[in-house]
Amino acid sequence: MIRAIVFFYLVSGLYGQSVQVYQFPSEFQTQEFSPDMITAGPGDWLFYLDNKARRLAARSPAGNFLFAGGFGNDYDAFFDPVGITVSNLDLIVCDRSEKKLLRYDYKLNYTGSISLDPYQDGSGVYIDNISTDPWGYYYLYSADDHLIRRGNASGIDRLPFLDLNQQTIDEICLESMVIVPNGDIGLLFSCTGEVVIFNRLGRIKSKLMVAIPAPSKLQYVENKWVVVNAEGQGQILDHLETSEFSIPIRADEQLLDCTVNNRDLICLTNRRMLVLQFE
């Protein structure tokens, strides 16, 4: 990969930050692969999803690339992917139209699927967002009813885990959902400019106000909640002090997705990857 390094500091001066700029690898061009989503796994694994081509890519810690998927009716194909996430040794793809989760190992071998039908009546659940916790549970948000459901390898729970309609939230416009190592669940509500933190039992712990306009991505880096927007503005949220920063998004590119790998915030655009290292 081609790499350029740019150094700059957050507005507050409290946190040092550097940015590494990675052009897409030649394998993406050869495979005609255009990633829309990215997620990180243990040991420096990175996984990508090309939504339009319905394909997956994996980059191993050694820098080797694997590809899987594509159009077709194979048992391991997906049709309307709305999210990818890592749970233990599984890569999970959420297929909204098929109402199921597809499971792959890190080398993109298909290992099975999980039905998103809690009532076993064929109704399924229409999913808009997915995240996983360290204990193997996955959490599914549906904008149809503003419920967050939970499940594991055995299937989805019959009763909702969290009903956002019953919470003290001014307006429900969930944009991003992230679960951190201690089980806390962070929900970004873009229209109200706030992040609401729930504990692993579904009770509200705190609310954090966002200063940047139209926040679209939420992540958790170095024990701090971080939000960014499509223009490359970012903010570190803290109960005591907040700090704003900038991501060098060019005028000819769009911010598509973000993930965290150790201390790095990896931002995927339609042209390259920007890796922010917080110090």
From TrEMBL:
Q: What is this protein called?
A: SMP-30/Gluconolactonase/LRE-like region domain-containing protein
InterPro entries per the UniProt record, alphabetical? 6-blade_b-propeller_TolB-like
The organism encoding this protein is marine metagenome
Q: Read off the SUPFAM superfamilies from this record.
A: NHL repeat
